[in-house]
Amino acid sequence: MYSAKVMDHFTNPRNVGEMSDADGIGTEGNPVCGDVMKIYIKVKDDKIVDAKFQTFGCGAAIAVSSMVTEMTKGMTLDEALKITKASLAEALDGLPPQKMHCSNLGADALHKAIEDYKNKQQK
Amino acid sequence: MKTIYLDHVATNPLHPEVLDAMLPYFKEHYGNPLSVYESGVKAREAIEDARERTASLVNAKAKEIIFTASGAEANNFALKGIAYASQSKGKHIIISKIEHHSILNTARFLEKSGFAVTYLPVDKNGIVNPADVEKAIIKETILISIIHASPEIGTIQPIAEIARIAKQKGVIFHTDAVASVGNIPVDVQSLGVDMLTFAAHQFYGPKGAAALYVKEGIRIVPLIYGGIQEGGRRAGTENVPAIVGMGKAAELTKSDLQKRIDHVKPLRDKLIENTLKIDKVILTGHPENRLPNHASFVVEYIEGEAMMLLLAAKGIYAASGSACSSKALKASPVIISIGIPAHLAQGSVVFTLGEETTDDDINYFNETFPQVIKRLREISPFAKGWEGLEDSTCTARK
Asked: pTM score, two decimals?
């Protein structure tokens, strides 16, 4: 059902946990649907220097969260905004079709975290 | 890695003696049971012998057993067959909200074909109130179908009591006993049912063989038209090896049932006792009136499919009723019907034990499951609570 890469990121997820000094936080999904992703980012000179996540959801949701935090580290904010559901799924060697929409919330949560960071900068 | 199979409600391994009984009907006795020469006659005799044994498991007469290819087929047959046979008397059917999909979806089909269906609620333990059944019966009611035991929450219904009410009112009563036959004693006479569905692979028989018990004298319209197989009530060349396997599995189950119950029940009790020590874990289904091999829970703050996958990575195979674990991405209607809110239904998980489950297996499970829960709660943003998100509505595209 899942690719080896999904299983790897699910069983050994990278960057798990809360970030107390996050510069931006983004949450996507809700528990009634079955998946919630919370992404934390640390930004320096327009670059994402660290990312962490907390996720409630299925194997795919956890693997996507792990992958998005891995991918985004070292990216500029503009580069990170270009991450999509499709590019995440591709990085994981594919996701089952029924998991593409509701469990693949990593890009949306990340973009919300970037938005949160930008809003905080303006204040 | 050793695997511990705790998904006996999904299916069971074939009993070695069942396989041995089946093999000759793949090889030398391959004839069509309608043929008059020896290999056909042998196949015919084997089917009738299997019918006797299968009937005996549920205390029915051989001629009251119609073999089908699955429990789902038998359930479709029961509902459609009675609906079309009795529609001149009325077009009202009563079922519960916690039926198997093969009953629920057949009932929905019949609704589209002009029948009215009442879906009875269940209480928090998953029990149908017999008084509700009585109240739901109207002059046009032709059939009541209530599941005997729930594969998802293990609850056993007061079938004898409901069957008595149906009988008093002159309404045909069917029960889907797929999850119960093989796990508890099931006797069509003492239950007082008119029809009963059961499937061989639930009691160490093969997949592809199931039966519908139809009490002598009940008129039912076939689902499959064609030849004269099964007394003209179910056409199609018989799946002889599978039917022989069902007969053998029924015979073994009849003699071993008490031994099987005595084996699984204390192990199951130990599993439940240990699992309920974990914070924020609830037992679903009836605490006592449940299948002796069945344990089902909802675990807060984490999701069922993730639990199943992480358990599988540690060699433990289980099932879940969460939305994400179903291909349809819908939370189990059974879990919702017992009043578990949708966000908690996501954490549903089901463990069902079997003949080969050992005390060591349960010890390993009892060590492993708390670790799996702990690990997933470390990943979850809700480790300390739902942060008010439990009342959200799900509008995501499924």
From this structure: 0.94
Domains and CATH numbers, chain A: 4-121 (3.90.1010.10)
Please, is B125 exposed, middle or buried when counting C-beta atoms within 10 Å of its C-beta (0-12, 13-18, 19+)?
A: middle
- What is the per-residue pLDDT across B118-144, written as a single tens digit (0 to 9) for each? 999 999 999 999 999 999 999 999 999
B218 near A CB under 8 A: no
What's the angle, vertex CA B202, arms to CA B200 and CA B205, rounded to 5?
40
Looking at the complex, does the CB of residue B368 fall below 8 Å from at least one CB of chain A? no
Q: Out of 3.30.70.1890, 3.40.640.10, 3.60.70.12, 3.90.550.10, which CATH number does the structure's domain B16-253 have?
A: 3.40.640.10
Contacts of B302 in chain A (CB under 8 A): 56
Residues of chain A in contact with residue B392, where contact means CB-CB under 8 angstroms, are 30-33
Query: Are A17 and A63 a contacting pair, CB within 8 Å?
Result: no
Q: Which residues of A form the catalytic set?
A: 33, 102
ipTM entry = 0.93
Residues of B in contact with A38 (CB under 8 A): 381
**B287 Cβ contact list (under 8 Å, min separation 6):** B125
The fold adopted by the segment(s) B4-10+257-397 is Aspartate Aminotransferase, domain 1 (3.90.1150)
By the CB < 8 Å criterion, does A101 face chain B? yes
